[in-house]
Amino acid sequence: MTPAALVQVEGLVKHFPGERRWFGLGRPRSVVRAVDGVSFAIPAGSTLGLVGESGCGKSTTGRAMLRLIEPDRGRVTIDGQDVLALGARELRALRRRMQIVFQDPYGSLNPRMTVRQTLVEPLAIHRIAIGREAERRIAALLEEVGLDPAFEGSYPHELSGGQRQRVGIARALSVEPQVLVLDEPVSALDVSVQAQVLNLLADLQARRRLTYLFIAHDLAVVKHIADQVAVMYLGKIVEHAPAPALYAGPRHPYTASLLSAVPVPDPTAQRQRIVLSGDVPSPAHPPAGCPFHPRCPHPKKNDRCRTEAPALREVTPDQRVACHFAEEPLQPS
Fold first, then answer.
1. Each residue of 259-311: pLDDT tens digit?
2. Domain residues of the chain, as ranges?
3. Spatial separation of the C-alpha atoms in residues 279 and 300, rounded to whole Å
4. Domain range 5-233, its CATH number among 3.30.1330.30, 3.20.20.70, 3.40.50.300, 3.30.470.30
5. Full-model pTM
6. Alpha carbon 139 to chain centroid distance?
7. How many CA atoms lie within 13 A of 320 on its CB side?
């Protein structure tokens, strides 16, 4: 782990009980391994992009990191403070330093609360401001996220998707956090609005020196905001690298397949599409050995892949890959 990291996650595990034997009763037949030993570090003021297909454990990782759901094992520290060891009172105090912006801005806002009520609530809970000072802060927050303060009397259904997401960002910023978990914050927005929100997040990070965990399934979006990228598959990180290195030369077949699906603005560009066979295995019944081996197009895939799980190891400086053949060319058979 990087010593200067503001956020450190080590061996994070979150399993959920699977289906039960008799009409929802009795011991579960299986365990859903949503997050299965995830580790990463985020230096202060930087962004880690956490990417992968739906169901790979990205959102569960972010929520377990903030203890919105309780992890089973692991260690999470923010500026050296162990998040998982805190009691209820200490955790509430730490909430000021770590916040989350959810994917669906309509679902994450109370439909019965105006924008003003939404923003004044965290100010009151954390005893940051009341009265005129709260009103001043609300107006400043709305201006900071690109909204007219006149919107403070509006309800969520009276706002557009982009405006609602800006309110969600303002709510997260109201308590002056250091760390933001951004859980697919632009995936529910139109493409033109996505660019505006991404630019806003970049500006806020530079102005406030925020540290982001940016969760997404779209590698094209992550490319514009992330300093580091971690790729998840079936609850595990299979590749972790600085963004320029990962986009220029992915070492894991899964990362390569995801990148091959990203549209390229140059119509003359020649690029081979890597199409994976089969479906993502169930996290309740992950395959033995390498979790990706049933879909892997690597020409050297063999019995070792089916029986031995690869460790996440450094292949090039700062680029770690969980693949037995990470040094080999990624040409599908």
1. 988 777 666 666 677 778 778 888 888 899 999 999 998 878 888 999 999 99
2. 5-233, 250-333
3. 21
4. 3.40.50.300
5. 0.92
6. 29
7. 18
Both tokens of residue 287?
């395959």
Place of tokens 């081996």: 293
pLDDT band at 3 (very low <50, low <70, confident <90, very high): very low
